[in-house]
Amino acid sequence: MPRPRFLDPTERGLSQLGQEILPVLYRHRLLTAGQLTQLLRPAATSTRYIRRQLEVLHGRGLVDASVRRTSRAGELLWYTTSLGCEVVESGGELAPRAYRMTEDAAASQLQEHTLAVNDMGLAFVQHARRLGDECGPLDWDPEVAHRVRDGDSRLGDEAFLVPDSVLRYIHTTPTGDGGQQRMLLTFFCEIDRATMSIARLAAKLHAYARYFRYIPQPALGRGRPKAGGFRREAWRARYPSFPRILLVLDGASQSQLAKRTDDLRALVAADARLQPAEDLQAGVTTLEQLRAHGPFASIVTPVLGDPEPTDVLLRRSAAAASVA
To answer: CB-based burial of residue 201 (10 Å sphere; 0-12 exposed, 13-18 middle, 19+ buried)?
Structure first.
């Protein structure tokens, strides 16, 4: 897993921390000073130093802020400006993204959803530090498009699967001979703040099932495919094994979220299009549980099959990719 290498310390007169902030804001779109502190300076006892660096970046036109809609105290949510995006992209360390945060988008109703996605990533980062695993500030990527159907890209949702984030995590476990095994775990993460219908959550699982089986075909006019067409699923070109699907619930009481989990399981169990269960490794937990207990506690309820909560590995260690 590549580790981030930031801009040269002398460029634009930015401090090392200022250079670290820019790519993290660029990738994750909208973050609080508290989230940035926990990601980049976890030993700090306050957000003062991060806020000072944000003020410097703001003064140079590289970042801007919007007031959090739900905050009575006027908490600021930070994002990179167009100039800040250009500085990050010129460094060549992160793949350029077509989406850029704007003033209107930063102030929109999507604030809490974006922050929840980043809280999910932050929970993985914090527990990786505690366990000696690897998951850093740039190890989740929001809204990565995956084609699930051939044809016109203007089909939108019908043609593409767009997880809320794709997260990569290297988990280390001891082996019987006294050594260690390092496993690369990849997750498709979805955040629901009790705003989606259960039917829509199930529809997202349908999209993952389509992607699991999707084999792209040549476009018309480019000749006939050999031996009946392509035979390799599209996901195999991007992932060593099919990512686990983690649905993270928030925005309601724990009892209400437990009912949503039960309702989703019941709907999926009655849907023949999502069977057999072994095709998709999908589980549900809550943001509160993920923060409190970490991904390797028994907090994940499988969407399919046995309802007994398990850990985020979902009892499928053979599917994890070993890394040196």
So the answer is: buried
